Amino acid sequence: RCQLLSTTFERTIPFHTVQTRSFMQTGTLKSIHGNGAVQKFPSNSRCFFRTVASASAAIPTDFLGDGKSDLIVSILGPPNAGKSTLFNRLMCKEANKSYKLSSDNKSRKRNKHRRSGGFVGYKSPSPSKHGGAIVSSTPGTTRDRRECIGRIGGTMFQLVDTAGVDGERIGHLYGKLKNQMEREMIKQTLEAAKTSDLILLMFDAKVGVTADLSETARWLRKSSTNINSRVVILANKLEGDKWTHDDGTAATSVMEHLLEASRVGFGEPIPISAEHGEGLADIAIIVEEMIREKRERLGLVMTNDDYNVKKKKGDEAEKPLQLAILGRQNVGKSTLVNSLLKQDRVITGETPGLTRDSITVTWTWNNRPVRLCDTAGIRRATKRDRANDNIEDLAVADAMRSMKVADVAVMVLDARARMLQRQELAIADQVVKEGRALVVAANKMDLLGLDHTYSKEDYAQQVRQQLELRFPMLRKTPIVPMSGLTLEGVQDLMPVVFDARDRWSQKISTGLLNRWLEDVLDTKQPPLQSSGIPTKIKYIIQTKGRPPTFLLFCNTDELPLSYIRYLTRNFQETFKMYGMEVRLAVKKSTSENPFLTRNKPMAATGVGGWAGRQKRMIAALKKTGKPLEKGVRRRRQKYKKN
């Protein structure tokens, strides 16, 4: 914990790892570190200081997600100002599942034996960056409004990343210029600014105040509708303290840029470095103050217990359904998301590849929580654009990560093709390998031209046969014909998705599993081993429910692949586990009878065993000159002597 005390305020802020920087400070300020060290700074002077504090406080296991009492923080600014970098820095890794996944460490040798005939290849991101917004030096990388749970120390809030704002895009908003994509991007940014309690306006401090920043500041004053909102200007890309030295070169220009930014109308800028995490403590102080003000305004009492909220047994609500929308480019994924949410939440258009970041939206369907994730279109690796810092590769990697943390993956098809494409088979292969439940959404059915000779059921049956031919474990996969544009059949998707999640996460009792195993063995016994010994399957247990994984105890190390497929097919038929892979593992039992070892004598080891007999033998040799008779216990010798 780190306490920041000054003459004007006094508060306690729990930190994880933050650094404090201040451009101009007046009054006496001292920093008390967790190890008891106190660092003082002179008063009435322009100073630069840095405080690094690390907290041992537990990470909050719950977060107030009611949407009313949570503080909403949006990051705005010109293109290429470092907004997405700050977004990744403030993102809570645990709450957003943006940590490194164990499946990322697996070898890619398994791709040599892929079953789809295709391969979803992508460039792996940096080992230190997982699950965050796509960061690139290319201006305009971010397009949609991306939301997540932010965290500074123990303070939790809602964080929003937006597309870059400049004068040209503002002109698109007011109809001066006509570009549909640019207009949709600025509309998403405007929506974030209207609903935010705190707006972090960023700019590149080494570039200075540009016309785009001034235009953005005027636009924020005009478009702000929340009277309680606050705008804080951040001067990014100021690493270290070299820029504070007035040596007549770059440092002077930086100080002039900071002084010019203070005339924008939002107070003095806060120097930060989003890449290196410097200056976050100043942001934490503002966030903490805004949270207190909002909760007091709503009549909610804020105590220290808000930082350590723990769930009690029995009070745990239903976990949100993690739903990922996957597919090729321009098949209608974003249109389907907007149709489900009944609002223009993500950017749509006829241009392929509009979506880049995986946009996760918290949603409620029939009083059941859902985390809906819209992903980028996945093309073949040989057809991707490699010119702009491999942005498309990073978008595909983000989409595949969203699939890995999802419960159910909805693969959207373009019904006009009337058959599965090779890339769609590769996507289905990845879903199966990760153990997710698969639901197929046949979109654009309104353009198919259905009649009495070719119906929706005929199309679904054709797609199902193609899936079963390539992936036998995906037999009877649910297929939902629909049209995201006309909303026809969209209402049938969510019941199928929840049913797939319930079947995918169910836990089957051991008794029911073994009764099923008895029926299967009565119908068909496993083949003999290579040595001619009969193969015996003793019992089965479930070791994991997400995905369904079962362990067979046998008298051998492995079963023939054909018999495993027979068991899998029979299992899916019995327990209705369609559209997912049922994993059956084989383990050899240690012995015929687990209680047989109790009847055996104790092994001769330790004191009183082999070492004891050696000791008695040596003692007998010294005393009588001959060893003890074999098989005669010592107590019998004592009895004979007596």
Describe this structure in words.
The chain is an alpha/beta fold and 642 residues long. Helices cover 29% and strands 18% of the residues. It is built from 15 helices and 21 strands. The protein has helices at residues 83-90, 167-173, 180-194, 211-223, 250-261, 280-297, 333-341, 391-404, 422-433, 456-470, 493-504, 510-523, 561-575, 610-624, 634-641; strands at 2-5, 10-13, 17-19, 29-32, 38-41, 52-54, 72-76, 146-152, 155-161, 198-204, 230-236, 270-271, 321-327, 359-365, 368-374, 408-414, 437-443, 479-481, 537-545, 548-554, 583-588. The strands form 5 sheets. The chain has a 6-stranded mixed sheet with strand order 8-9-7-10-11-12, with helices on both faces. The chain has a 6-stranded mixed sheet with strand order 14-15-13-16-17-18, with helices on both faces. A hairpin with a 4-residue loop joins strand 1 (2-5) and strand 2. Helix 2 (167-173) packs across helix 3 (180-194). The chain is globular and about 100 Å long. The N and C termini lie far apart (77 Å). 37% of the residues are buried. The model is unreliable at 1-66, 107-113 and 304-316 (pLDDT under 50).
